[in-house]
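Quick one - first record:
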Amino acid sequence: MAGEPFDLERLRQNWARAADPPPGELPARLSAVKAPRDPYPEARETLERIRAIAMAQFPARRETLEHFFGEARDLLAVMERPADNAGRAGGEGEDAPEAAKDPRARMMELLDELTELLEVFATIGR
């Protein structure tokens, strides 16, 4: 498993499937994808596989990587139960942090940051 390449594209596609379809006719890329009814278990499994691979390939960077994977787990929890977080301090609303206002957008940013970080780690060595 440690020798497998990262499958971040699959994780991104998982979020694309979970997003609301655009108004009007579905684009070909979305109409060909059968979205799971509950994408969160698959997202958690994929995230944990990526985490295991990253930790195996970059053990010296564990602390840095753990920050990203911890935030990703928290965002998944918020996205899975959005109604549970509404009305609470730090939940949805005008004064909520950006991640709470749009957790899916923050997750995409986080995945982009993680991709760049892994590329840097691969370039500078383990």
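second record:
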Amino acid sequence: MRSSAVLVAGVMLVAGCASHHGAHGDSPVAAPSDQHSAAHNAPTTAAAALKAGSGERIVTVGVPTDFAPQAPAGATDEYRCFVVDPGLTEDVMITGTEFQPGNPAIVHHSILFAATPEQVPAAEQLDAADPEPGYECFGGAMLPARGGVLAGLDESDWITAWAPGGDANELPDGYGMALPKGGRIVIQMHYNLRSEQGIDNTAVRLRVSDRTLKPLRTMLLPAPVELPCAPGESGRLCDRTDAVDDVVSRFGADSGATIAGLQLLCGGDPDAPRASEVQTCDRPVTKDAKVFAVAGHMHLLGREISVTLNPGEADEKVLLDIRNWDFDQQGAIPLTSPVRVVPGDTLRVKCRHDPTLRQQLPALQGTPARYVVWGEGTTDEMCLAILLNG
């Protein structure tokens, strides 16, 4: 299964989410929202700049100096990943981040991923294969899953995300995100070039610590995407078999395995998947943990995404409820108090996609009608929730 198909999006928890509570039945969560506003990209306590405390230091990584993004022919946006060596000589824990956009007129948003030493060769190969600095990327960093696909679902490789208006982000006291010696940072940049061109040299300040901290992990909850063509649409790619073959032709055989594997993971039938605008997936909780924040990830046809703990039970809790999806606002929504999850609990992700958006959005106008399945491309889709837990 192609790991990048399930290792996507980016969010960062902040100090305001750091209070500790007991069982999930006693912990309030964030109220459902009708609008996923820009503030959700940086759920932060006010901070003018990231400061290093005792046992901490600042490591700065960034886009190659004076990079000039160029959108593909017929497009207005470029998504590009840059592989950066932070120069670590020891294992560290990231306790905070601060983005410094080099050209706010064209920098739309950015996501940071961690590449372990085992993932570095794949990242460098992607970089070397592209004649421009970095490599083209859309859904995620496109790196192989560390420890296998299922392990990658329970602990993914992204660090943080930024969008305009975001300030310095800090993790809860006593928590950190691991970055091993010999690893790399992959910076995904989304450049919007519709109205302006220019150069960029965005930098990211990472606050790192060599202290022993509790690991903050990211659990991924994917669901299948089986979105038929809209009423009145027709064409070769409205046939599911042809649509899946098209994805495989663009991203390789592993992408087909991902599509089938998601059916198996979520109780579906790979040979007879259920086509619908709405898809769900239930996952059992396997570890005792506290959930601090939740984020969603879909592409351009997404409408709604939610995450529910123990759906249909007396202790049911809605952890995420985005009713007006915006692809460019993918940050974490912090829970009002951490929610404890324990083995025996169930987490459900639910997504709704709208195929009629294909003819409404400028980025998709002119693209052929198609049966949409899980895939990395702009015209493909995903249904993914991300839980920050520790």
